[in-house]
Amino acid sequence: CPSCELPVPSQGRRGRLPLWVRILVGLAVVFCIGTYWWLMLIVPDGVRDATVSIHEQTARSNLQILNNAQRLYRAQFGAYAPSLAVLGPPHPDGVIGSRSAALIGPELAAGEGGEYSFRVWDTPKGYVVTATPRSNLQLKSFWSDETGEVHVGNP
Predict the structure, then answer these.
(1) CA 79, CA 55: separation in Å to the nearest integer?
(2) What is the C-alpha separation between 56 and 51, in angstroms, rounded?
(3) In this structure, are residues 82 and 138 in contact, taking their beta carbons and an 8 Å threshold?
């Protein structure tokens, strides 16, 4: 401006980016947006599958822990434990015995483990222990018995 002696920006083509740069930036933006939406469609299934796999493997591992605890209980007391609580930590008095064998932790003794509930009951041949999902993640149920094999589904 002539009166205030400040430079006035040019109104010509000097300030604009070349056409090829603007096209390249536009393509990069479109690529980023497309990649974002593609990942939003694909990744949640992969994350869900991994989460389900982790929870199901944890349930299977907990069934193996319970099978081992039942074997140890039988070796010590001559019969399988009638409940998970009996396999659990000792009572506050600290006495370990056939009513509190201290073979599993308090969570499993309460019938809880991750996304699963656990239950055990006597059968004529021994016992059955089940792992039932507590969440809505479409997890499988599992069960096992005195053979130690873990099966999918319900007994």
Answers:
(1) 31
(2) 9
(3) no
Structure tokens, 87: 């396999």
pLDDT at res. 148: 94
Count of C-beta atoms within a 10 Å radius of residue 108: 20
What is residue 9's predicted lDDT score, i.e. its pLDDT? 54
Q: Helices (DSSP H) in 78-151: which residue ranges? A: 84-87, 106-109
Q: Provide the residue type at 129 as one letter.
A: V
The C-alpha atoms of residue 102 and residue 4 are separated, in whole angstroms, by 90
Q: Give the type of residue at 119.
A: R
Question: Could you report the per-residue pLDDT of 45-56, keeping only the tens digit for each?
Answer: 666 677 788 889
Dist CA 83 CA 136 (whole Å): 26
* pTM score, whole prediction: 0.69
All residue ranges of the chain with pLDDT < 70 are 1-15, 37-48
With H, G, I as helix, E, B as strand and everything else as coil, classify residue 151. Answer: strand
DSSP 129: E
